[in-house]
């Protein structure tokens, strides 16, 4: 028995033109700009570096780039602490260089999505500096979330809340008031009840829309609107969350956040084609559809596979649920295994303890291993790489869009060997090293086998690259049959040829095997188990491991099946 899962008719019904649905099945490649390519040799990746690698991106076969923050920033949180939303960090480039990059990407047929960080600015943003200077009760202060403290002299923070990176969520300013920061103290939260904030963000979105960007990735999209009563709930209540009705938690995922996005959507739809937007919203699956609704942002990240153990049943359940959710929201689903916030999936899938344990997984999978210094016997990178390649090949066969993170096309694993004094992530500092943080997936890419920073640039690299990096270099993998880079290239070339309606039909398969057919008569098959299984009859289009006949352990393939 097979079950057909119709998902969405991809016919473009939008009056704005044939390209309006470009994002529905796009492969989007995330560039973390400080670590991609460094043209000027200062150790920090830049826009000229990206421009110099557009031929690489074109050959990779991606449809769009998602560019992580490039704004002026003190880098308290890797650029997610924005000083000025309508400018470029001078270490990264200039506005004319940005324009040139957009033009060059578009000429290569690649769209551009940029990161918008609307929950918080940096503490160096002009409005925050004005808010601190203007004092309690001022209109300037109302743009952020300031409160008096508790205790006889207000010396205690307004509540016992902890920030996401560890440590208190409130910081005191010289006149005695406290401001809220869900993340680092350098990232004060905006007050979205303030009209200036709303108007200014619309101006920012328009600024970039007018410069030719094709869409936005919305950072912490589920935290903008807050309802903070005089008597603040305790940290325990806040984190437990069950005492608040759905959609009415004081901070997270409040229903009215969509009023903001409805206004943004009207702006996005004034462009032809409409600007795309994808929400980073860590919310339960059934709440995700609100962000993905066409009158809200239009698409939302689905991080379910990223948090899943290597298990066929778990993968199948997640895929089925998410295709259903996509249908309900009117959006397409998004598939992602790696990004700049999580341990690279080669390492996650190779962690022996994680994969052998009963209930092994958490969003910070791999952090235990990293904290222990990344012991070699705790991870099997050979297995991890096989599984990662198979997982990605399967994701690229699914209906919907796929988000890739720079370096995964090289099969990079997490860099464990970063000395403490060279770490940058606030998570490391604010947890006293308890959580080593996210630097291990942000190490600048190896382009060449040797050279001062393995071809990242003519100078050093802002995070130390390990001695094994050269073995993963683009130079070594390009045109090398069987390399991970060639696997990605071939998969994307095929995907462009094969991708049709957003439909999927599950096929019967043995235990630990997932197989589904896509319109046009091609099948994706993935072997999660450790013994080979037969391949379906037909023309083998692509396979992650060389084989004579069978599909090896931890391998994936696409097969064109007879009509
Ligand atoms: C999510 C981003 O992906 C992460 O890198 C950042 O630290 C937080 N949001 C805060 O902006």
TrEMBL record:
The keyword Glycoprotein applies. GO terms for molecular function: alpha-amylase activity. GO terms for biological process: oligosaccharide catabolic process. Keywords: Glycoprotein, Hydrolase. Pfam families: Alpha-amylase. CDD domains: AmyAc_OligoGlu_TS. Belongs to the glycosyl hydrolase 13 family. This is Glycoside hydrolase family 13 protein. The lineage of its organism: Bacteria, Bacillati, Actinomycetota, Actinomycetes, Propionibacteriales.
């Amino acid at each position: 028995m097979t079950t057909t899962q119709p998902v969405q008719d991809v016919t473009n019904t939008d009056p704005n033109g044939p390209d309006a649905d470009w994002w529905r099945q796009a492969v989007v490649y995330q560039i973390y700009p400080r670590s991609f390519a460094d043209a000027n040799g200062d150790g920090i990746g830049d826009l000229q570096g990206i421009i110099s690698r557009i031929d690489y991106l074109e050959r990779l076969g991606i449809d769009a780039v998602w560019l992580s923050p490039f704004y002026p920033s003190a880098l308290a949180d890797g650029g997610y602490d924005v000083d000025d939303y309508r400018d470029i960090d001078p270490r990264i480039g200039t506005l004319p260089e940005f324009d040139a990059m957009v033009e060059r990407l578009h000429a290569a047929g690649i769209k551009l999505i940029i990161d918008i960080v609307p929950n918080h600015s940096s503490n160096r943003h002009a409005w925050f500096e004005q808010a601190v200077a203007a004092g309690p009760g001022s209109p300037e202060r109302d743009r952020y979330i300031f409160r008096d403290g508790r205790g006889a002299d207000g010396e205690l923070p307004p509540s016992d809340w902890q920030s996401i990176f560890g440590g208190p969520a409130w910081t005191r300013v010289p006149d005695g008031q406290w401001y809220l920061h869900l993340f680092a103290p350098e990232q004060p939260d905006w007050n979205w009840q303030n009209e200036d904030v709303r108007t200014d963000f619309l101006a920012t979105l328009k600024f970039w829309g007018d410069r030719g960007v094709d869409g936005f990735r919305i950072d912490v999209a589920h935290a903008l609107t807050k309802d903070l009563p005089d008597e603040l709930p305790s940290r325990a209540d806040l984190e437990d969350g069950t005492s608040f009705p759905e959609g009415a938690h004081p901070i997270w995922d409040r229903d009215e956040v969509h009023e903001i996005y409805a206004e943004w959507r009207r702006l996005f739809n004034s462009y032809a084609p409409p600007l795309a937007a994808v929400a980073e919203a860590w919310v339960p699956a059934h709440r995700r559809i609100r962000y993905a609704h066409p009158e809200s942002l239009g698409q939302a990240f689905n991080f379910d596979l990223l948090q899943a153990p290597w298990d066929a049943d778990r993968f199948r359940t997640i895929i089925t649920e998410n295709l259903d959710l996509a249908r309900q929201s009117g959006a397409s689903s998004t598939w992602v295994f790696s990004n700049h916030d999580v341990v690279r999936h080669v390492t996650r899938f190779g962690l022996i303890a994680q994969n052998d344990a009963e209930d092994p997984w958490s969003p910070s999978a791999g952090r235990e291993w990293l904290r222990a210094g990344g012991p070699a016997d705790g991870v099997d990178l050979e297995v991890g790489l096989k599984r990662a390649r198979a997982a990605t090949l399967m994701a690229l066969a699914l209906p919907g869009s796929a988000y890739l993170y720079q370096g995964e096309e090289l099969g990079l694993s997490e860099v464990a060997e970063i000395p403490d004094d060279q770490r940058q992530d606030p998570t490391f500092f604010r947890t006293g090293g308890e959580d080593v943080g996210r630097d291990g997936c942000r190490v600048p890419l190896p382009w060449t086998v040797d050279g001062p920073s393995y071809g990242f640039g003519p100078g050093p690299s802002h995070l130390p690259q390990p001695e094994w990096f050269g073995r993963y270099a683009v130079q070594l993998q390009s045109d090398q049959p069987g390399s991970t880079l060639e696997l990605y290239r071939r998969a994307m070339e095929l995907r462009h040829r094969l991708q049709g309606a957003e439909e999927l039909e599950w096929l019967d398969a043995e235990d630990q095997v997932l197989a589904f057919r896509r319109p046009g008569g091609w099948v994706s098959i993935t072997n999660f188990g450790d013994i080979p299984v037969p391949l379906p009859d037909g023309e083998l289009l692509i396979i992650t491991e060389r084989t004579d006949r069978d599909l090896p352990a931890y391998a994936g393939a696409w097969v064109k099946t007879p009509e």
